[in-house]
Design brief:
The complex is a heterodimer. Chain A has one domain. Helix content of chain A is 78%, strand content 5%. Chain A has helices spanning 2-26, 31-39, 58-78, 88-106, 111-133, 147-177, 185-220, 225-279, and strands spanning 43-49, 52-57. In chain A, helix 4 (88-106) packs across helix 5 (111-133) and helix 5 (111-133) runs antiparallel to helix 8. The termini of chain A are far apart. Chain B is elongated. Classes of the chains: A mainly alpha, B mainly alpha. Chain A binds chain B through residues 7-8, 11-12, 14-15, 36, 39, 106, 198, 201-202, 204-206, 208-209, 212, 244, 247-248, 251, and chain B through 2-5, 8, 48, 51-52, 55, 58-59, 62-63, 65-66, 69, 73.
């Protein structure tokens, strides 16, 4: 009781003393308030629609701008293609597609399956990477708004389930769910709930944390230092998150495809053993 | 509640999780470097496995980060 009283009376005094002595002295003002102001979503347009409200925030506008940038880049890179690439932009785009194809093949897909998967997965990856890079220009990245990563993760997991059923059929999908033992079924079903949560929280936490830290650095040391720290938190971390999102979604598809193949293989071996036993 | 105690709780949440995740990533990458020094021909495969492992270890630290951000901004 005494301990609790001591802690309760100590913290307000400590906090006010810290505020009086440090913050007011250096004349920074209330950092918490400034950061809270910086991370609040800016709503640019409201339209009441009955019980709901149609809202366009800064995240939507930034993702529109990035869609336009991707459109222009893709148009520039795909223009005047040649059999033997003579220009740098064609080399860059071909290498990008090649890297994605190799990633899919390493995850256990055939070449035809990889060619089917690459357009969606590559689009998601490039979109996430470019939207994260927008913080380099002091534009708030849309992934700091939790709705953006949640929608992307749900879309990706729905695509993973749909494309694996397309590849291996409903029977193959079911057999990949119960592959080593049927006992694992609830855990594998639970996995489809955890996958979108983990994908979206990873993207949101990384981008939001980096954004808050960069805002903090911009407030306390506005010159020179944010450029150095931003090399990691804006540039490298943004690209890394896009790469990880792509890599994980490809791995999820490859997991189901490989599981279905292994289950089919095991089933065939069991059948062969049975017929051999009958003959003998 | 008092803001100071909330700040302390948020700081402890992210600090413990970040320390544990750092130990985990250190163990995993140390073993991966040992393995690729012993067998350099499969270092590409080891790198891919290491990346997957690090992503999953890092996820726990990210969850702690989200929890501490919630403590600060939503309490």
């Amino acid at each position: 009781m005494l301990m609790r009283l001591a802690v309760l009376s100590f913290w307000p005094r400590f906090w006010s003393a810290l505020k009086d002595d440090m913050l007011e002295e250096i004349r920074i003002g209330d950092i918490g308030l400034e950061i809270e102001h910086a991370i609040a979503p800016r709503i640019l347009f409201r339209w009441p629609l009955g019980p709901f409200e149609f809202v366009i925030s800064d995240a939507v506008v930034v993702s529109w701008i990035m869609l336009a940038v991707i459109f222009v880049l893709a148009w520039l890179m795909g223009r005047k293609r040649e059999m033997i690439p003579a220009t740098g932009r064609q080399l860059i785009s071909e290498n990008l597609v090649d890297i994605l194809l190799k990633l899919c093949k390493n995850a256990g897909m055939t070449y035809e399956q990889a060619e089917t998967v690459v357009p969606f997965v590559g689009t998601i990856g490039i979109f996430i990477t470019l939207t994260n890079l927008s913080s380099l220009f002091k534009i708030p990245p849309p992934a700091k708004n939790p709705a953006f990563p949640i929608i992307l993760a749900l879309l990706t997991v729905a695509y993973v389930i749909a494309i694996s059923i397309h590849f291996v059929g409903l029977r193959g999908f079911w057999s990949s769910l119960i592959y080593p033992k049927a006992m694992l079924l609830p855990f594998k079903l639970l996995d489809f709930v955890i996958k979108p949560i983990s994908l979206s929280l990873r993207l949101f936490g990384n981008v939001f944390g980096a954004y808050i830290l960069m805002e903090f650095v911009y407030i306390i040391i506005p010159a020179l230092i944010p450029g150095v720290i931003g090399l990691w938190f804006d540039l490298a971390d943004g690209i890394l998150q896009g790469v990880i999102f792509t890599y994980l979604s490809v791995t999820y598809i490859g997991e189901i495809v490989e599981g279905a193949h292994e289950a089919a293989h095991a089933h065939q071996e069991r059948l062969q053993a049975q017929t051999a036993g009958k003959k003998a | 509640m008092d803001r100071g105690i909330i700040a302390l709780g948020a700081a402890l949440a992210i600090a413990i999780a970040a320390g544990a995740a750092a130990i985990g990533i250190g163990l995993a990458s140390g073993k991966a470097f040992e393995a690729s020094a012993r067998q350099p021909e499969i270092s590409g495969k080891i790198q891919a496995l290491l990346l997957t492992a690090i992503v999953f270890i890092e996820a726990t630290a990210i969850y702690a980060l989200v929890v501490s951000l919630l403590l600060i901004f939503a309490y």
